[in-house]
Design brief:
By secondary structure, the protein is of the alpha/beta class. The chain is about 45% helix and about 10% strand. The strands form two sheets. An eight-stranded parallel beta barrel has the order 3-4-5-6-7-8-9-10, surrounded by six helices. It has a two-stranded antiparallel sheet with strand order 1-2. The site of prephenic acid has 11 residues, from helix 1, helix 2 and helix 3. One of its GO terms (molecular function) is chorismate mutase activity.
């Protein structure tokens, strides 16, 4: 071997040893960042701290003796800070009760005789608003005939305008219960005020928390104090991280029976009421063990694309579908445009079932 080859070999050995030292130091640094992340989580402080990062960079630049120039040192350390931040975030996820990292097995929720999040897909259907016993009964009968086990119906309606129909309130919940009992259906209705919860759960089997209330932390906490299953809708502009944290508010109070429902998010698109974020389905299923449903009515606002969207949701791994049905949508007191009438609902259901994606 020539002298040149000898020194190449020697230098490479030194470099390998330095790599290992660097790796050890990086690992030690990551562990320290992990401890800092835990403290920050406990104190409710965000992980990202640009001021602290700037202070560290200033110290490093002042100590830089070359041969790397300052810009290179800055870039290298910025990458290290970024890796630490990612590590802190991953560690936090493990601590979320709703996280699949914390519980690998899927949560299955039993509502009356129906399992949500189990092997079979589920369908939830019903009018946007409970308007009368007769109207709700007609839908209940259609669900029973179609083998759909869960009846939805709004009684407290958070409407955009205060002058629009606000729902029948407790009377609406009583109607739902009456129809539910008559046909053996489980019932679901949105509750908007923590003060209504105690009374509401005497009548309904699932508490719905609507998109506009996903950030209503007092409502989330109050729902977490009950032991009634909760269907939590994704907020209009909520990230998936915010969505899962909203669910965490409920389960951290002891109510572990939470179902998530994607209902479309706000984008610039005008041809649908909202934009169905289909990617949310596999991501939520991956990140969380909670059941994931898709509300095809609110996400699209269009009757003509409900079936393909429901099929897409099921293909993406959704545990169930929610759809609005009204005996006479033209005279509905809310969402008249987007509710299916009963024959349309039967067609919708057949099309979805014929696809083979709706698991029996
Ligand atoms: O010093 C902190 O507060 C940390 O959380 C550690 C650390 C880092 O790894 O350097 C991580 C993220 C912050 O943006 C700043 C610094």
């Amino acid at each position: 071997m020539s002298t040149n080859e000898n020194s190449l070999e020697l230098l490479r050995e030194q470099l390998d040893a330095t790599n290992l030292q660097l790796l050890e130091l990086l690992s030690q640094r990551a562990e320290l960042a992990g401890q800092l992340g835990k403290l920050k989580e406990a104190q409710g402080v965000p992980d990202f701290d640009p001021v602290r990062e700037q202070q560290m960079l200033d110290k490093l630049i002042a100590a830089n003796r070359g041969p790397f120039d300052d810009a290179t040192i800055r870039q290298l350390f910025k990458n290290i800070f970024k890796a630490s931040l990612n590590y802190q975030k991953e560690e936090h996820k493990k601590h979320l009760i709703v996280s699949r990292k914390n519980q690998p097995d899927s949560t299955v929720i039993k509502v009356k005789d129906t399992l949500v999040g189990g092997k079979a897909s589920i369908m939830v259907a019903g009018p946007c608003s409970v308007e009368s016993y007769q109207q709700t009964r007609e839908v209940g009968a259609a669900l029973k005939e179609a083998g759909v086990p869960i009846l939805r119906g709004g009684a407290f309606k958070p409407r955009t305008s205060p002058y629009d129909f606000q729902g029948l309130g407790v009377e609406g919940l009583q109607i739902l219960k009456r129809v539910g009992d008559e046909f053996g259906l489980a019932t679901i209705s949105e509750i908007v005020d923590p003060r209504h919860l105690e009374e509401a759960i005497q009548y309904i089997d699932i508490i719905q928390i609507g998109a506009r209330n996903m950030h209503n932390f007092e409502l989330l906490k109050a729902a977490g104090e009950t032991r009634t299953p909760v269907l939590l809708k994704r907020g209009l502009a909520a990230t998936m991280e915010e969505f899962l944290h909203a669910a965490e508010y409920i389960v951290s109070r002891g109510n572990t029976q939470v179902m998530l429902i994607e209902r479309g998010i706000r984008t610039y698109e005008k041809w649908t009421r909202n934009t169905l974020d289909i990617s949310a389905v596999p991501i939520l299923k991956k990140e969380s063990h909670l059941p994931v449903l898709v509300d095809v009515t609110h996400s699209t606002g269009r009757k003509d694309i409900l079936a393909p969207c429901a099929k897409a949701a099921l293909a993406a791994g959704a545990d169930g579908i929610m759809v609005e049905v009204h005996p006479n949508p033209a005279v509905a007191l809310s969402d008249a445009q987007q509710q299916l009438n009963i024959p349309e609902f039967h067609n919708f259901l057949s099309e979805v079932k014929e696809s083979g994606l709706f698991k029996a």
